[in-house]
Design brief:
Layout (H helix, E strand, L loop, with lengths): L1 E4 L5 H11 L3 E4 L3 E5 L10 E6 L2 H7 L13 E3 L2 H10 L4 E3 L4 H13 L8 E7 L6 H7 L3 E12 L5 H8 L3 E6 L2 H14 L2 H5 L3 E3 L2 H9 L5 E3 L5 H16 L1
Parallel strand pairs: 1-2, 1-9, 4-5, 4-7, 5-6, 7-8, 9-10, 10-11
Antiparallel strand pairs: 3-8
Helix pairs in contact: 2-3, 7-9
Length: 248
């Protein structure tokens, strides 16, 4: 019996290590494919800081950042996973928020109060092509000038791996982990196309946030659990709760 990880490649291996450390077997179904977008900053803006909501944004631009002034700026990361990618890329001043975009917005606003950045300064937002919320607009309402640069896109994968389809058919998958609304939708579409949607939704769906969980509930999943906080350790705790409930 395995836990299904739907994260994209590179992220999914770190998740698998954490699950195996807890005694679980793992199957992969990366339902979104990472594609970098060429980074061309032609704004000539005098940035005071950088905001990032995904480690993928760092991976996309890292090869182009060597010896650039951007590495010397404070970088506001949505969570520790993204912060680690930023440090690996060479950013020295990394400020970590609480795991979601709302917490990142609040961290930036608080940093202005703490004089880390100026209230009306210009921030560079390294973003994905599909944004779940208007973080730039929210910070703009707080007095910041946010310039958004698309650095990557996540493309849905049309098919699930054969071993995953066979796992659903044989009831060999214990639960599914979901990290974003977009990946949850991509998973549902792929499961539907493969004819395994009913089996897939019959087991626990463990979600990083309530926003993600809504996608699964709308699709008809009855066992949807949400992490207490938007981080992977809390998601793993939700998984353990789900498995204990099924055994009870």
């Amino acid at each position: 019996m395995s836990i299904l990880v739907t994260r994209p490649q590179s992220d999914n291996e770190a998740t698998a290590e954490g699950l195996r450390a807890r005694g679980h077997s793992v199957l992969f179904a990366p339902v979104l494919k990472f594609e970098p977008v060429a980074f061309h900053d032609e704004s000539e803006a005098d940035y005071a800081g950088i905001i990032v909501t995904s480690a993928n944004a760092i991976r996309a631009v890292a090869p182009q950042l060597q010896n650039r002034e951007l590495l010397r700026l404070p970088l506001f990361a949505v969570g520790e996973h993204t912060a680690a990618a930023a440090r690996d890329a060479g950013f020295a001043r990394v400020i970590v928020a609480g795991g979601d975009a709302a917490a990142l917005r609040d961290k930036v606003v608080q940093s202005a109060r703490d004089k880390v950045v100026k209230k009306k300064s210009t921030l560079l937002y390294l973003a994905g092509a599909d944004l779940s919320r208007d973080l730039g607009g929210e910070l703009g309402a707080e007095g910041f000038n946010v310039i958004t640069q698309t650095t990557y896109r996540m493309t849905p994968v049309k098919h699930l791996p054969r071993e995953v389809c066979e796992g659903f058919a044989a009831h060999g998958i214990r639960a599914v982990l979901h990290y974003s609304r977009r990946s949850a939708r991509a998973f549902l579409e792929a499961a539907r196309d493969e004819g395994v949607e009913i089996s897939a939704l019959a087991i626990p769906q463990c979600c990083l946030s309530e926003t993600v969980a809504g996608v699964l509930r709308e699709a008809g999943a009855s066992q949807v659990l949400v992490a207490a906080t938007p981080d992977e350790n809390a998601l793993f705790d939700a998984l353990e709760r789900a498995l204990r409930t099924r055994l009870a």
